[in-house]
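It is worth pausing here to work through a concrete case rather than discussing structure prediction in the abstract. The textbook approach is simple: state the sequence, then state the predicted structure, then interpret. We follow exactly that order.
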Amino acid sequence: MSDPPWCRWRQDTLVLTVRVQPRASRDEIVGPQGEALKIRLTAAPVEGKANAQLCKFLAGVFDVPVRQVTLARGPQAVPSR
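Step two, the predicted structure:
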């Protein structure tokens, strides 16, 4: 079985393509939307708040420290290490 188009492995790093809907009523994974995984977040898309919330949310989903979650592209993305 192959991985969905929004999820791939690059060596030992899981790379997700996500589409974020800010200012939602709750934080949740909606499901696939084309080539991306749609995620709703309560945070507003100002001053990096939605990006920070996305990192915290994904860290919780995958049970990893927040420092292991980075944004590679998008507004105020953090370059990969």
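Step three, interpretation. The chain has one domain: 7-68. The beta strands are 7-10, 13-16, 18-21, 28-33, 36-40.
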